[in-house]
Amino acid sequence: MKQDLATYIDTELKKLFPVFQWRVIKNTNNRIIELFITFNTKVDDSLQVQDVIGQTNQPGSIQFEDVICFYDPAYAHVKPQNYLASIPINSHTGIEKGHVYACLKQLNIIAEEGIVELKKFSDDNVTGEFSLRWNEHNLEGTIQTLKSINRYDEEKVKMMLDEEESFIEQIKKDESNDGVERI
């Protein structure tokens, strides 16, 4: 059985040993895969930081969370400003594994830098906001490097869709049971 995009992302992250924890969520109805990442840094117990939704940190630690998404623009109505990165794909033909791998490597680098910056942020009484920044130029550089050293995989990985049973199939199943629902 072929691997789908969500499983491929999870498998590749396990190989990368990233500096963050992650969770992959697939929404086949909207043809979107979201990759949530989280990391934290130790801080003084007295430091209180509030996130964008008004929650404050636990004493002694600041936890940060962000998300990237892979989506099919023909089906999903994604607001790029809601994501660290939003990567458009064709859910029918898929996306090259090399592109996905480059995105994951880029994400790990950004998270590594983010951990250092989050610690600086926690020590700085002046800076009012912390966020990660995706750099499309660096992503393209990673892709070119992978291609130049022959480590870019052009094989496509698709977003497998959870197919619902058609109405006709449901009727056929009912007819095979003489129209009686078996429990």
From TrEMBL:
Listed InterPro entries: DUF3013
Any Pfam family the entry gives: DUF3013
Superkingdom assignment: Bacteria
Protein's UniProt name: Uncharacterized protein
The organism of origin for this protein: Marinilactibacillus piezotolerans
